[in-house]
Amino acid sequence: MKPKVFITRRIPENGIEMLKEHFEVEVWKYEHEIPREVLLEKVRDVDAVVTMVSEKVDRELFDNAPRLRIVANYAVGYDNIDVEEATRRGIYVTNTPDVLTNATADFAWTLLLATARRLVEADNFVRSGEWKRKGIAWHPLMFLGQDVYGKTIGIVGFGRIGQAVARRAKGFGMRIIYNARSRKPDVESELGAEFKPLEELLRESDFVVLAVPLTRETHHMINEERLKLMKSTAILVNIARGKVVDTRALIKALKEGWIAGAGLDVFEEEPYYNEELFSLKNVVLAPHLGSATHGAREGMAELVAKNLIAFKKGEVPPTLVNRDVLKVRRPGFNDIQ
Ligand code: NAP
Ligand code: GLV
Ligand code: GLV
Description:
14% strand, single chain, binds glyoxylic acid, 35% helix
């Protein structure tokens, strides 16, 4: 009998096709997120699950899933999963690094440029007929934004995506400064990037891009005190996780002009609605679209399938998150009757 995998959302077909050869596959086919109580019911007899960032994978879920041996997250970030608890129970956790790095770095740049040059405001101005109504074809002082070329970009979190953002910054002739837990001497020489303590980075940057995972340490890492360190002409771009920024402090910063603008792809709660934030003209908002390209999403589907298939064959999944689990249980579904 094939092991059972439950996929909590429709993912690109290439991944599902790969999985069907090895698993009995069930997909939550509705557009809406799976209600929590339905998920807890669905996992009762599955050997594997494919989860999205919107699903909390915690003790309660594990308690409901006695056969569960592997959780393949359809994302690179895995703050939605209690990894420690999974490891303790011998449950493997995998993610989807690399395949979405370029798409996400491109999107950080999309937000950076759109915010710097006020693209959404300008688009609304044209589309709403306001431009025509005003009757001013071109004015030297209309919609002035921030220069990008030659400026300083500060990248907080200098892993796969942070470095990919930096590579693009080279083409914009920028000075690149970064912060991470550890220094990256190779990348420093390749890109001329300079390590800075967070406070210095915030003081010196014209653009701050957040590319850290959400952890206990990075929760509300960008708070009131730190926003106050930024230049009044600076722009903050968040493609990491909403909770890395204290939104209340950010709204204050944007309203009171401590910073010039923000480009946000992620929010403290998703889906998000906040009239105070949405009424501000100097923000550009997206509904968590970092990896939303055909190529990246197909790459993620393929990698999810590769992880599950490797595990089924008794091999270590290629992008295993919790290596310590190897000490608890061997890969494979063989111990399940
Ligand atoms: P990664 O390669 O693991 O890079 C993470 C970087 O963050 C590393 O440089 C790490 O430092 C640094 N870091 C971790 N904790 C830190 C701290 N307390 N202070 C400073 N730096 C810290 O991960 P990635 O593939 O680039 O992805 C990063 C995150 O982006 C994901 O976890 C996810 O939350 C988010 N993401 C969002 C989207 C989206 O759709 N918006 C898409 C993909 C990913 P060290 O190098 O020193 O370990
Ligand atoms: C998306 O947010 C991811 O972590 O892949
Ligand atoms: C603007 O369109 C210019 O030609 O400078």
